[in-house]
Amino acid sequence: MNLKPDSKVLVQGITEPLGSIHAARMKAGGTNVVAGVSPGHGSEKLHDIPVFDLIEQALSAVGQVDVSVIFSAPFEACDCAFEAIAAGIRQIIIITEGVPPLDMVRLVRKAEATETLIVGPGTPGIIIPGKLLLGTHPADFYTKGPVGLLGRSGTLTYEIALELTNAGLGQSIALGIGGDAIVGSSFPQWLQILDEDDHTEVIVLVGEIGGFSEEAAAKYISEAIDKPVIAYVAGRHAPKGKRLGHAGNLIAAQISAGNPDKVSPSGADPETAQSKISAFKQAKIPVADRPSQIPELVKKALKHGVKKK
């Protein structure tokens, strides 16, 4: 990851309703949005941002770009990402949710081959408070500080950021890996990035029901992460048997339901929060019972510093 306050940012799908709204907010927050791409809208300007039909045309006008943020329709999002990779952009954030899984399989393979970092789909993006906004995070919920905030959900991540901010605990970075069935980067990848980040002293991981991402994260934390980690799992009171959550959670739950031999590493039903909570507790990671408890646990972690293996 190579994100700086002056990183050049391109917005694909800038004329989409969400693209237009959040491109304006990103620019107003100081993000260096240099161009937008939206086929059929070349030569236009939106929020004083030049719009092009193709990335190639945009780069000819503004030079090489560091990050692309994609708001295009689900069936177009991966094609947009392939176009960005072909143009040499190696950091791509896909805000769009509901991207076809087979499209994402192709994209993940291409990203691995080209060493491209993909965040999303179905992500609120990344925010480095006071420096850079890439996505839909409400910037006024965040403030500078030592807490790295990592989650799957968008709005829940915002809520926890506000809890931390109100408690006087700022954030070094906050991001969502995405809630779709297949995402471009994982909890372990970002845990390693935050563990190596000089501005992050403690990590807050926000999980939710469905899939096995949190169990994998718990195992990775216990084996490879030196910085203290606090966890919270949403959905512990969700009614059993109900299909709730992101597209990825729904698919994971359906796969599990049709595969009775597939159980979570902790032995609990993967459709419940208990599997994730058990995995974190087995890894000796403090788990908050509710979002309002997170600041208290973070303060304890900051007081004790780097964990001992």
Automatic annotation (TrEMBL):
Gene Ontology cellular component list? succinate-CoA ligase complex (ADP-forming)
Cited PROSITE patterns: SUCCINYL_COA_LIG_2
Q: Does the keyword Ligase apply?
A: yes
Record key words, sorted: Ligase, Nucleotide-binding
InterPro entries the record matches: Cit_synth/succinyl-CoA_lig_AS (IPR017440), CoA-bd (IPR003781), CoA_lig_alpha (IPR005810), NAD(P)-bd_dom_sf (IPR036291), SUCC_ACL_C (IPR005811), Succinyl-CoA_synth-like (IPR016102)
For this protein, the record's SMART domains field holds: CoA_binding
The active site is formed by H246 (tele-phosphohistidine intermediate)
What highest taxon heads this organism's lineage? Bacteria
**One of the record's GO molecular function terms:** succinate-CoA ligase (GDP-forming) activity
Per UniProt, residues of the CoA-binding domain are: 2-99
Gene3D superfamilies assigned: NAD(P)-binding Rossmann-like Domain (3.40.50.720), Succinyl-CoA synthetase domains (3.40.50.261)
- What biological processes does GO assign it? tricarboxylic acid cycle
Q: What is this protein called?
A: CoA-binding protein
